[in-house]
Amino acid sequence: MNLNVKIKKLRAEAVIPQYATDGSAACDLTACIGESITLMPHCTVKIPTGIAIAPQRNDVVGLVYSRSGMGAKHGITLANSVGVIDSDYRGEIVVALVNHSDEPYTLNPGDRIAQLMFAPFFTAGFTETDVLEDTARGTGGFGSTGK
After folding, report:
1. Global pTM exceeds 0.85
2. Which of 119, 122, 99 is nearest to 40 (CA)?
3. Residues 27, 32, 38, 40: what is their CA dihedral angle, to the nearest 10 degrees?
C-alpha cells in the first residue's frame, strides 16, 4: 500500500526522509541542527528534523522508532519508546533521544537519528459494561502465559 505524504521543509538544510532500500518499512529522519550536539550519558535531548508532514489520509499514523544500530551499538534510543505523529499534526517532527550508555555520544548535522513508519489505525467506540466475556486467559497478567 502506498501513501501520499506532503512534506514541508521548515529550514533549508532539512533533509527529506528517504527509504534505504526497496524493502524498507521505515524511512530515515535526520538531525536538522546547526552544529554538533553531544548527548551525555543518561541524558535526554530533543533533536529537530526541520520537517513537517501532512499524510493525505486521516486514518494513518506516523510512528517514530529508534534506529536499531544506534540502540544496539551505542545505547541511543527514543525517550518515549515510540513517537506518535497524528495525521492532523502539522508541527515540526522533533525526536527525543536518550543516551542509556555511560559514554557521551555526538550527533552531527544531517545524522540519521530515527526512522519513520506509517501505519493504519482504528479509533475505538467505548461501551461501558459491568460484565466482560470470560476467556481462557481470564485476568492473568504479566507472565501468565509462560516465558
Report:
1. yes
2. 99
3. -60
Grid-cell match 541524558, residue found: 43
- In sequence order, the β-bridge partners of residue 98 are 44, 77
Model pLDDT for residues 27-77, shown as the tens digit of each residue: 999 999 999 999 999 999 999 999 999 999 999 999 999 999 999 999 999
List, in order, residues 6 or more apart from 123 with CB less than 8 Å away: none
pLDDT, one tens digit per residue, over 6-33 is 999 999 999 999 999 999 999 999 999 9
Task: Sort 94 into a burial class: Cβ within 10 Å, 0-12 / 13-18 / 19+.
Answer: middle
What are the phi and psi torsion angles at 114 (to 5°)?
-165, 175
Q: In 29-122, which ranges are continuous DSSP H helix?
A: 68-74
Q: Which helix (H) or strand (E) holds 117?
A: strand 112-120
